[in-house]
Write a structure and sequence with these properties.
The structure holds two protein chains of two kinds. By secondary structure, chain A is mainly α. Chain A contains ten helices and no strands. Chain A has one domain. Classes of the chains: A mainly alpha, B alpha/beta.
Chain lengths: ~260, ~260
């Protein structure tokens, strides 16, 4: 390698590219906070995206949430039955669902469904020059495409999280009712005995953080898509992988923070 | 609006490009390009694929930044403009993309309304409808107003793309390969449309193409871009009567009626 070639990179090509990408991602996220409160507001587009992201995810979320609650209760029963503690099932299931499963299941389903959709849609608009067309017609594509989608995911994922929690609890109730003939009121009284306001608050916070992550990652990957149709596929794929990775990292951080608040 | 033959004002340049350089990695695309576009003029930039023709108009519209040199549009240096100033300048520039770049998820009406309602928020519904009808009539496609882009033919998509730029009443039109991928009859229709746009909307245009029929039909002046530089500028006949072998070979590979 010639001297001239080695001087092209500050450290190595890979490390340089990593830091350049990190810088460009940070700039992309900061731009969101810079643009979100500035008029003009794309109200119609935000509502449309809330419908696309939230309402259209209800069937999938209903099914996965219900099955999660049902299966989790079914799997937990034998271990508790060994100690004759099946009466603890409602509290155990509620703690697991509200604290961890509802936000995580919702976020992972949304990362797959919504994140890939955003990445592919914006990526396709990038490679077919539709984003350039917005720019040259003096329209801010970031505001129209990114801000509206990120706001929609940030707003809708916590709502979906609450809904997932509800249907998962219904799944759990079905299992408990079938085995112990517990009444609906009694099940939910027991279930919420051990749930504090902090648990619900942290669960909603997770929903907001995960929603923001799914939206911004999908938009970032799509907005920076290159190489034609191959790039669109890569953007969709990278949106899902990166969102899921970040969701798990955020899960650890939020749990640590919540535990330290709880003391 | 009554169509009148266009008049070129050679004392009033609307675009001035000087010593423009642009590279992508080791690929040096533009190597010192100079170009003037005068008010009311149609300049055709000819050249083989990959010679930087589209890069040139993307720099002029502020979509790309040059490595060196200047691009002035209506007295403003594009690279030095930021945010609002650049947006204001872009209102005066219409850009017709090679693949039309129509918004897939919107109907023709929504495509046309999109830039208008976002740049002139005070407009009433009636005024918006009138503007949409006016540009659709100008491109001869009023019947497609409720169709989706996927339902249009290649030629129709090009026309709607042009209509979308015209709705903001630009002073300058930049056409990127307007006849690429079209059949010869549709090409002639697009050429006629570009001339009609110039006469009706009093625009000055840069037309990027490698189609000599298009160049001859639309260009007041032709500029030949080869190896990153303009090697010849003049009328169509002046350029192609040249003894330069590179220009001759370009001419020989094209078919002109």
């Amino acid at each position: 390698m010639s001297l001239k070639q080695t001087r092209e990179f500050v450290i190595t090509k890979g490390v340089d590219e990593y830091f350049i990408n990190l810088y460009s991602a940070a700039k992309f996220v900061l731009r969101f906070f810079n643009e979100v409160l500035r008029p003009p507001y794309e109200g119609k587009e935000i509502i449309k995206q809330c419908y696309e992201i939230g309402y259209k995810s209800f069937p999938l979320i209903s099914l996965t949430g219900f099955i999660t609650g049902l299966v989790f209760t079914k799997q937990s029963r034998p271990s508790l039955a060994e100690f004759g503690a099946t009466s603890w099932l409602p509290s155990l299931v509620a703690i697991a669902i509200i604290k961890a499963l509802a936000p995580l299941v919702t976020a992972l389903i949304a990362a797959g469904k919504v994140g890939s959709n955003i990445g592919a849609e914006i990526g396709s608009m990038r490679v077919t020059e539709q984003i350039d067309a917005m720019e040259v017609s003096a329209v801010n594509p970031y505001k129209f495409l990114v801000v509206s989608r990120v706001l929609a995911t940030t707003f809708m994922i916590p709502i979906l999280t609450c809904y997932t929690g509800f249907v998962a609890m219904m799944g759990a109730y079905l299992n408990v009712q079938t085995n112990e003939m517990t009444s609906f009121v009694s099940f939910f009284e027991q279930a919420f005995e051990k749930i504090s306001f902090l648990d619900i608050f942290s669960s909603l916070t997770k929903g907001i953080v995960y929603g923001f992550t799914i939206g911004i990652v999908g938009c970032y990957k799509g907005y920076n898509a290159t190489q034609g149709t191959e790039g669109v596929g890569k953007a969709a794929n990278a949106s899902v992988v990166m969102s899921m990775f970040l969701i798990f990292v955020e899960e650890i951080l939020i749990v640590q923070i919540t535990n330290s608040i709880r003391g | 609006m009554e169509n009148q033959p266009h008049v070129i004002d050679y004392n009033q340049p609307v675009i001035t490009v000087r010593d423009l350089y642009k590279s992508f990695g080791n690929n040096h695309v533009l190597k010192g390009v100079d170009l003037d576009l005068y008010k009311g003029e149609n300049v055709v930039v000819l050249g083989r694929s990959g010679t930087g023709k589209s890069v040139l108009i993307k720099i002029i519209s502020g979509l790309l930044k040059q490595d060196k040199g200047t691009a002035n549009v209506l007295g403003e240096e594009v690279a030095k403009l930021g945010g609002k100033q650049l947006q204001e300048l872009r209102l005066k520039i219409g850009f017709s993309f090679q693949n039309s770049a129509l918004y897939d998820s919107m109907t023709v009406r929504e495509n046309l309304e999109f830039p208008l309602v976002r740049n002139q928020r005070q407009l009433k519904r009636k005024e918006i409808n009138e503007s949409v009808e006016r540009v659709l009539n100008a491109v001869g496609l009023s019947q497609t107003i409720n169709q989706m882009p996927s339902e249009l033919s290649g030629g129709q998509r090009k026309r709607i793309g042009i209509a979308r730029t015209l709705i903001l009443r630009p002073e300058i039109m930049l056409y990127d390969e307007p006849t690429a991928g079209l059949d010869p009859i549709t090409c002639i229709e697009i050429n006629n449309l570009m001339n009609r746009v110039q006469e009706t909307f009093k625009t000055s245009s840069i037309i990027i193409t490698h189609d000599l029929t298009c160049a001859k039909a639309t260009g007041d002046r032709v500029a030949m871009l080869l190896e990153g530089k303009f090697i010849k500028q003049g009328t169509f006949d002046e350029v192609f009567n040249s003894d330069d072998e590179r220009i001759k070979s370009f001419y020989n590979y094209n078919f002109i009626k």
